[in-house]
Amino acid sequence: MVTAERVWDALAEIPDPEIPVISLVDLGVIRDVRVDDARVWIEFTPTFLGCPALEVMRDAMAAKVRELGGEPDVQVITDDSWSTDKITPAGREKLRASGFAPPAPRTAQPLQLVELQRNGFRCPYCGSTETTLENLFGPTPCRSVRYCNACRQPFEQFKTI
Amino acid sequence: MSERAQKLLDYADDELILGWRDSEWTGIAPSLEEDVAFSSIAQNEIGHARALYELAARELDTDADALAFDRSPDEYRCAPLVQQRRMDWAHTIARHWLYECADEIRLAALKESDDEELAGLAAKMDREETYHRLHAQMWADRLRGNERFEEAVRELWPYALAVLDEPLRPRLAERTGLSDVSGFQPQTQRGTVTDDLRRLWEEMTMVRRSVAGATW
Question: Which of B191, B194, B172 is nearest to B182 (CA)?
């Protein structure tokens, strides 16, 4: 018998394809799960629209539902309902522990470059806030590259969106 | 085709072709940081194109790939600004900055749209585009006063205006501090298909045309 709870548990086992330390549930990209008999609807909110891992995530969710004996219907919701604020506290801790600085909270005002350039973003390795922006862009659309002047270590910063 | 579908294709074509143009810097940008930046921006613009094509595809009963790759070059509706192939760095930054300024205005208008689906997508795109704008502005500030850059901005300005519908053009003049929204030049207008675009079309549709129905 497929239940929403079992589906959520199964989805919590799917790692993010590009940052495998964090699960899709930790990432907060699953907005809703509804179950009607064997039919399972999942509302999935992509992180960045240019993320090449979207198909992989969608297919992985569908596969998990099939493993439970359900018929998946994964709807991709392309509105502004996902934000980096949706990453769970556990997810943020997992990111930090593996060298990714978790995103700063979303602000009411549009981001300014000076805010990103100044100190205050914490190095995930040594905890110092003496860090500088190296590049707004990184190896995937969701990450920037910063440099820690205290421990002299470059690190990846999750972008706030 | 409905006005909505046409508008979606105009926009999707802009983002797709600009994404291809940005990706021309992959591997050969002036610095590693810019190589990463333009590659990442390219990837994101093409992601936006896909989302816009998908909205149009539902209305036109087709799919995003068919809209992106199965039309003839004459059917593309992208603004000539994005059609121009890889230029020198001054022109590249001038186009990047002008396009992002125009795109900010277009997105602001779409976010206010009564079309909830489109307004929602515009809001999401706008969050992501913030980073493109910061990058473009950073470079525009750095190159301001440089003769080659200023000349490139002047040259591309009529093309940038043509990205937007006429009622939005005064906002672009205000946003960029450039004046004269009147200068109509036929070769800058949306609907014009340049030789640069034809060459790009040959390249970007090559696999699709040579192996019909290929998946990977």
Answer: B172
Q: In which element (H, E) is residue B189 found?
A: none
Whether the Cβ atoms of residue B79 and residue A84 lie closer than 8 Å to each other: no
Give me the mean pLDDT over the B17-27 stretch. Answer: 97
CA distance A6 to chain B (A): 30
A106: closest chain B residue by CA: B127
Helix-strand-coil percent breakdown of chain A, rounded to 5?
Answer: 25, 25, 50
The tokens 């240019």 sit on which residue? Answer: A50
Q: What is the pTM of this model?
A: 0.94
| Eight-state DSSP code of residue A125 | T
Please count the helices (runs of H) and the strands (runs of E) in chain A.
5, 7
Q: Given this model, what pLDDT does residue B80 score?
A: 97
Question: Got the DSSP string for B120-156?
Answer: HHHHHHHHHHHHHHHHHHHHHHHHTT-HHHHHHHHHH
Select the residue from A75, A82, A137 to test the B interface by mutation, using most B Cβ atoms within 10 A. Answer: A137
Q: Is residue A105 within 8 Å of A11, Cβ to Cβ?
A: no
Is residue B183 pLDDT above 70, yes or no? no
Cβ-in-10-Å burial (0-12, 13-18, 19+) of A137 comes to buried
Give me the residue from A79, A138, A145 closest to B124, CB to CB.
Answer: A79
| Rounded Cα gap, residues B32 and A113, in angstroms | 20
At B13, list the tokens. 């074509």
Q: How confident is the model at residue A1 (pLDDT cuts 50, 70, 90)?
A: confident
Q: What ipTM was predicted for this assembly?
A: 0.92
B36 touches chain A (CB under 8 A): yes
